[in-house]
Amino acid sequence: MAQDGRRLGVAPNTGMASGEIEVDKKATPTLLLVEDDDVDAERVIRAAQRAGAPFIIRRASNGVEALAVLRGEIPPVITPPLIVLLDLRMPQMGGLQFLGELRKDGAFRGIVVFVMTTSHSDEDRRAAYDKFVAGYIPKYQSGGDFGPVIQMLSRYIDVVELA
């Protein structure tokens, strides 16, 4: 039985339960960049272009906008596979609050999230890992142009099967 109460049967010839979404393993992943700083966002985008990154970048400028993008309220709709690169210090809804909302929603609970932030706070780092982020990247360690971050995310996508 699905969480929404629907009965799940096996779809013919697929081995999957009917009602399940089959993730296209060949689909181009999306990187949802949640960053309020225009300069940092542009540097991430340029680094991805220079590296020929294996993903499409979609930007949201805060947590409220990011949730709306994920829920399909702001087109185009993002489909899996998906990774989020999240700043913590943003107006309206910061990164930790966004993570809390994301992890409460069953549809988004399993999304891979990397935090990239100016915060040097041990408390912020612990809070992020408590919300199951895949990694915590201080911006000062990002190589200035974010090239190492893009390389790491590209390699992650090559090696890890995303949901």
Structure explained in plain terms:
With 163 residues, the chain is of the alpha/beta class. Helices cover 33% and strands 15% of the residues. The protein is built from five helices and five strands, in the order βαβαβαβαβα. It has helices at residues 38-51, 63-70, 95-104, 122-130, 147-159; strands at residues 30-34, 56-60, 82-86, 112-117, 135-138. A five-stranded parallel β-sheet has the order 2-1-3-4-5, with helices on both faces. Helix 1 (38-51) packs across helix 5 (147-159) and helix 2 (63-70) packs parallel to helix 3.
Reconstruct the topology from this structure.
Layout: E1 30-34, H1 38-51, E2 56-60, H2 63-70, E3 82-86, H3 95-104, E4 112-117, H4 122-130, E5 135-138, H5 147-159
Parallel strand pairs: 1-2, 1-3, 3-4, 4-5
The helix content, as a percent range, equals: 25-40%
Question: How many beta strands in the DSSP annotation?
Answer: 5
| N-to-C order of helices and strands | EHEHEHEHEH
Looking at how many chains there are and whether they match, the oligomeric state comes to single chain
Percent strand? 15-25%
Provide a count of the helices.
Answer: 5
Task: Tell me the major beta sheet.
Answer: 5 strands, parallel
- Write down the Rg: 17 Å
The largest beta-sheet arranges its strands as 2-1-3-4-5
Euclidean distance between termini CA atoms: 20 Å
Shape: globular
| Helix-strand category | alpha/beta
Average pLDDT, rounded to a whole number, is 86
